[in-house]
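pasting for ref
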Amino acid sequence: MKIKLNKILKKGRAMFLAYDQGMEHGPTDFNDKNVNPEYILRIAKKGKFTGLIFQKGIAEKYQSKIKKSGVPLIVKLNGKTNLVKSEPVSRQLCSVDEAVNLGAVAVGYTIYIGSVFEKEMLTEFEKIRGEARKKGLPVIVWIYPRGKGVKGKKKKDLMAYAARVGLEIGADIVKIQSTGKKTDIEWAVESAGKCKVVLAGGKKRSEKELLNEIKDAVNAGCAGIAIGRNIWQNKKPLEITNKIKKIIFK
């Protein structure tokens, strides 16, 4: 079945609003405004994001409001908390069928390459990919090098490795964390081949630093970004959104 990437891309570009951090980071990311998913939905709708990333619980509880927003839903299928301090592993919490029933037009999954649990996550991803292929759903894979296996390795090499794994396992889009250097991003994009690359927005930082990195990413060949805290933690989220849109959709 043909993969419907146009459901989450605009002219081949991606601008995803990520809001799956509540499980990974706990309540420390939130204030009285952005703790409410409806606030995020308003930003996504007014900012005209090409996709909105939720875990299944929010997707279920706010299903009607998500549908009314008109923003394409991407459901994250696995997750973990940050309370257990051991080798990273993120296991499946939502099926592809459940995601579709919730209105998802794409699914996402995280793999920590370098973890001793890497094999389990790769195996789980392959089953998910097969199910998604039958439905024509795009599959986005978050690939983050973490765990015992990455010690002593250069960040540039790990970023390119993450991008390459996305291509090798058959993801449609791979989401990676940037080193902040344009030449490193270029090498990662080249390593990903025909698998589209989006950068993770990462921790909250200055507007100048953020916009410069997005410019470098787009010029290096990235399809766009999956950004969360740098939008919904911003006092003027729509202003920063519009600045980012001008860069990505120039």
